Amino acid sequence: MRAVVINCTLKRSPETSNTEALAAVVEEALRGRGVEVENIRAVDLDIPPGVETDLGEGDPWPAVHRSLLESEILILASPTWAGQPSSIAQRVIERMDAMLSETDDDGRPVAFNRVAGVIVTGNEDGAHHVINNLSGALNEFGYTIPGQAWTYWNRGPGPGPSYLESEEGRDWSESTGRAMASNLVAAASALAANPIPPPPS
Question: Which Gene3D superfamilies did the record assign (predicted)?
């Protein structure tokens, strides 16, 4: 089984990312269940805007798209800014929009029989809004969203330290992340055994 984690931090490599740090907890839990994990930091790719899979020469998105189709599990990880997903997360969602019109050889949307989850970090409130925003888009594309396939960390309202700067709440976020990994693998295994059929004609 394979998973791809798309980190939608605004920080370019090699700068430390709080979102990447929490995602690493989930990645470790997935690897502990035998899942191969690929991590993509989307901001490093300079993904151009658009709603097509391939925008031509120099577009890095087709390689990301291949990773999506080679994986049974997708995790979108985003910081919270002004209570919203990062602009990078929105760019990823916009490029994934092309998947709505792509089908496999049996006529199924290409995201069918794949599962997805969401990770959110921030030193302000808004995590549930971001989880719902991203999960709703992924579900529209055809991904199955298992129950509680998410984790988040935030300090609460007002300015304050970030995930890597504070121990407050990290135990909960990390245990929830490990449960998220378990739920994703269980749902992906169930879909592999009993795939969703093509939509009725």
Answer: 3.40.50.360
